[in-house]
Amino acid sequence: MTRAKRPRLIARTELRRRWRTMKGNTMQLLAFAFAAVMLLPFSLGGVFGAYLAGGFVAGSETEPLIEWARMAFVYGWIFVVGFGGYRAYAVALRPDNLDGLLTTVSHRDVIGGLVLAELVLWSAFFLTAGSAATVAFAVGAGSLLMIPALLFTLCLVLVTGIPAGFLLALGVRNAGVRSRLLSRLRTLFLVLLGIGYFALIFTNAFTSVLEPIYRVLAPTPIDWFGDLAATGLGIRASPLRAIGAVGFTGVFVAVAVASLYRLSAWLWYADGVHITHEVERSDNGSSRFNGLSRILTQPVFGVVAVDWKRARRSPISLSFALYPLIVLAGPIVTAVQTGDIGTGLPLWILLSGTWVAGSLFALNVLGQEGAALPVTLLSEAPERSLIIGHVLSGALLIAPITIAATVISGLLSPHSIPVVASLGVSALVLSAVSGAIGTGVGVGFPRFEAVSVSRSTKAIVPSAFAFAIYSVTVLVVALPTVIAHSGIAGHALASVIGVNQFVIGLGGTLISAVLACLVGIVSMYIARDRVRNYRLA
Predict the structure, then answer these.
(1) Angle between helices 501-532 and 382-412 (to 10 degrees)
(2) What domain of life does the native source organism fall in (predicted)?
(3) Is 512 a residue whose pLDDT tops 80?
(4) Cβ neighbours of residue 378 under 8 Å, at least 6 residues apart?
């Protein structure tokens, strides 16, 4: 095999491997299909918007248009570099069996194949939605000659942006493998980065963050891509800048290839720093949980301590429990943008906290034991300690947060103080009992095999079917509380019956509490019976 064919073979193999991995993960495949369906209306809207933009350009003065074109391509290049760098860091630079690849081919072939695979994936989107938007814009502007110029410019943005993203990712990873401090703080950096990202979404402050980057890149040849794309549009694009954009691409690619070779060699052949963690020598963790160990029995306390230690050592394995928090995005964004907390936000917090508390540890009682399951089943009365321990693990962690957040948001909302007190009681009962509801569902549909929760991490998480059934059950149980405390439904019921809304809220709290306790007792009975009679095949 010639050397030129090796990167193509690696790229083809990497694409096939990613497709097989996605097909083998039903949840990931469904998430991808859902994202595609959700993005379809935005893509169609983008194509129609491009047509309208073309018509606007055709009927406007030419003076500011070239500046807008340059600005658009600078921001587009930033987008490609940013998301390309993220994908390179999280996915592309971590191929399977990397050590085996490096013993058969050079690092140049490997990095070339990985970059080529990313270019193919990005090109698939640009050749569909990008081409449609380009044609729509050209038709709207009445200048079909700009179609090849605009498509050619998009290709140059990809050819320069994707390698630039890889260079950023390689720089970050090289710093991480050589710095003991950065290795220790990697998790903290990732958490802060995630918090910052969601803060940008909630506050809609992307412009304030990207504007300094734009000011740095605007005087560079990246700004020339706008002139190249506008060739033939008649908006005073500079031919010299357009030619310079092509020349800049050639020089940039040559420098990027040499830099990619060097940085990938430094990363993959590096003898990185090693972090050794001091082993805890406490027999039962009582030195850290003295108060809790005196209240709970030793078997139950052992389950709680193990759950919390697992969560601390591998928090990403609990990432599935964050999905319910997605429902909070809309209400929080609305509250931040309007500066006003409505009557609905406390209800969303109550519902999300209840959802998380029950799913965190109690939704896979058997499967969560992993290799220790045979030993656990041979212990004395394992069903009691397992079920109660997993229920308490989530309740003790999440219930206080749910109660505090619900009460604080309720006090800041138009709810009266008695209604807020009723909401607090609902938060206490539902978040404490939701784990009991999850136990029976979890043992009915357990999952014992590990699945991928990130590119390089596998963990045993609850099955999708169990998570769906549990979610529906929690929604049904919490529905009386939600209706009774709703600013619309609760007020309407109070007006029809002729009582204070606090009475309606208290009634909803009592109904939800009774339902939660009944369902929780039945669920725990089913879980106890299944665990007691469970036999390994």
Answers:
(1) 160
(2) Archaea
(3) yes
(4) none
HEC secondary structure over 342-368:
CCHHHHHHHHHHHHHHHHCCHHHCCHH
What's the CA gap between 435 and 395, in Å, rounded?
A: 7
Q: Which two tokens stand for residue 53?
A: 């933009």
pLDDT of residue 283: 44
Return the H-helix or E-strand segment holding 376.
helix 373-378
Paired sense of beta strands 458-459 and 451-452, if any: antiparallel
Q: What is the dihedral of CA 130, 131, 133, 134, to 10 degrees?
A: 110
Q: Which of 165, 161, 186 is CA-nearest to residue 175?
A: 186
132: exposed, middle or buried (C-beta count within 10 Å: 0-12, 13-18, 19+)? Answer: middle
| Tens digit of each residue's pLDDT (9 = 90 or more) over 149-177 | 888 888 999 999 999 999 999 998 888 77
The Cα–Cα gap between 160 and 362 comes to: 48
pLDDT, one tens digit per residue, over 449-499 is 666 655 556 667 787 788 889 989 999 999 999 898 887 787 788 788 878
Q: Is 273 helix (H, G, I), strand (E, B) or coil?
A: coil
CA distances from 262 to 108, 159, 170, 183, 359 (A): 9, 19, 10, 22, 46
